Amino acid sequence: MYPSTVKIERVFPIRRSNSRHGMSTQSGFATASSRHYSFTLPGWPAIEAGMEITAVLERDGDWAALRGWLNHTTGEVVAPTRGDLIFPLLVSLLMTASVSNAWSEAGPFLIFLLYVLLCGLPLGYFLRRANRVRQASAALTVLAVPAC
Fold first, then answer.
1. How far is residue 34's CA from residue 63's CA, in Å, rounded to a whole number?
2. Number of domains the chain is built from
3. Cβ contact 112:43 at 8 Å
């Protein structure tokens, strides 16, 4: 995770959505030296010109990989929550249960193949996403703690 502190000079149009995947905000902004288009944040945070933020990026300089931010003006921390991970976890558990029931009807190779495709991939996606959420939350928590 890579922290990046910027001051927002201009905000591009904000699109807020509320879907089965949760609430999210898409927007872009300009700083004194660069422009950043089309990033997505969880929830509906305030985005205004004049804000100073410290963003946590998954890849250095890649604002499309924005994981969350700390608003220095208000102290608001915007980060994904662990509750967003419930659906992928349930899918991987249901896939595991369905493959387990098919064990008696097919050969071991077919079961192994089904397990990898139906259980391993969703579970791998869930674990990778959970690790990203944990890292972003930890980085933003550290940034939000005032210095002594």
1. 11
2. 2
3. no
CB 65 within 8 A of CB 1: no
* Same domain flag for 88 and 146: yes
For residue 147, what pLDDT is reported? 45
The sign of the CA dihedral 106, 110, 112, 116 is negative
Range of the domain at 13: 2-78
Buried-state track 63-92, b at ≥16 Cβ within 10 A, e below 16: beebbbbbbeeeeebbbbeeeebeebeebb
Residues 10 and 70 in one domain: yes
Say yes or no: 106 and 146 in one domain: yes
Residues 103, 147 share a domain: yes
pLDDT tens digits for 62-78? 888 888 888 888 888 88
pTM here? 0.59
